[in-house]
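FW: tagging you since you asked about this chain on Friday. Here's the raw sequence from the shared folder, copied in full. Didn't touch anything.
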Amino acid sequence: MYGEYSDFEFSDKAHMTAAVEGMYKCLSENTHIPVKLEAAVGLSKMLKNDIAEDILRPGLPQIIENFIQLMDQVDSEELVSAFEVFMSVYADEMGPHAVKIITHLVEQYKRLVSIDIEDDDGEALLAAQGCICAARRLIDACCKNKALLLELRTIMYPILMHGLTPDGLDNIEEVIDMIVMFVFYCSEPGQPIPAEMWRLYSGLLSIIAGGEVDPEGGYAMEYIERAVFAFINFIAKDPTTFTQLVAQEFQLDPANPVTYIQETFKAIDRILVVSN
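HL: got it, structure written out here
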């Protein structure tokens, strides 16, 4: 109930403090999952209040651990959204915990997308989308730390690739945003972007433009404006590789291999045909 009234100004600051500390205790010490879940969601709502933010800051490592443990026990989109609120409010303090959090979010995502949507009325799918949103928010918060971002890129890579498939299309906007951030902040002008990242370039180009058998373009055609930012970053950061041969798995005709620039112009031609 306190969470629902978190926008209110409490005249008795001691009362507010006691309420937040009580909810924190329910999250960290109570053994009943429903109670811990309500406490986690309630605390995230209480963070609208600066007093709650200051009270909870010292216990942030324990709160993160509690969220991770709870997410292993409950498939809840509301819980993941609550975790995302904590990452947003304490963005500047998430660095030391980023690898652990991203690793857990990736593991959760893989598990959740494997659940049959008919088995849980789509709750797992919503929770999976929440994991991607939370990961994107945390990566955004870590952009100034290149060494950390490189480590997070390696952990996130399988999820980025999955996001460029029909099964991952629900998360395509967040995935494109993360690709843009990884290319822009992890790459120095004139230094090669890793080959695996260029596979994301080709994959994104493919699902946007589609092939000759796709009269309406790729299945992600509607996200072309967002994808353009990713393409621009690849080309600007690594123009040398842009002129080299595309990875083998993306060569439509292995007997006549094309470069990334040729692949790009073919895709542009395809998009113009579809648009007309």
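FW: The two ends are 55 Å apart (CA to CA).
HL: agreed, and The chain has a mean pLDDT of 88.
FW: great, closing this out.
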